[in-house]
Amino acid sequence: MKPYYILIRDTLRRDIQNQKYPIGSPIPSERELAETYQVTRATVQKAIAQLQQEGLVKKIIGKGTFVCRTFASPVYLLNPEGKSSSLGVTQDLSDKATITSQLIYHVQQPAGHHLASQFGVSPDEPVHAIRRVRLFDDVPALIEDSYIPLAIVESIDDDTLQNHSLYAYIENVCQQKIGGTDSEVSASLFDAEMARLLHVPVHSPMLHIKESTWLADGTVFNYSWSYNRGDLFHMRSRRILTP
Q: Whole-model pTM?
């Protein structure tokens, strides 16, 4: 038998999809659901939290839980070919969604010791520090922090950062050939600041990717962290053991 929170989640999801609860309308309160299913409110809260992660409902403090959409958000596959890619998310997934960016900041700052060790430069070397929220079909999907030395890319205009592929800009405008990338993936949870930027509940699941990208001559030009919504992204890895 399914756990009660799964039963409640699936029933509410079906009712939302069947328009019993149209977009903008409230679903029954936690107290009502607990009484209907004869379970604790903690069980109901677990069911509703999963619907929130799917983007179907949103809690409004003091008012209740309201329907946001009738179907769960699509799931995007990072590294879709199952092998290393240096194209960046815009080019990898541009055929799946319209990808734009909300620029949170773009400043110049000293590299500091950690970034200096990644780039092989002195700590006072200036770098671009960029934070963007990447939107897939206007849905906030991930936060990306990028650091690029000015010695490699002197200037980056904000239009590129908001509406175009940064890596395409590097190759086509700056005439720098990208050679490859090295990624490290881990699981985490969104803190309050990041949850607010992505419009998801605090402690929602995150796919955290730390990445170094280098040019054809081996020079590391971009060191980045991306914080991807766990409900929107999966990742593929493939190994070939025979020639």
A: 0.69
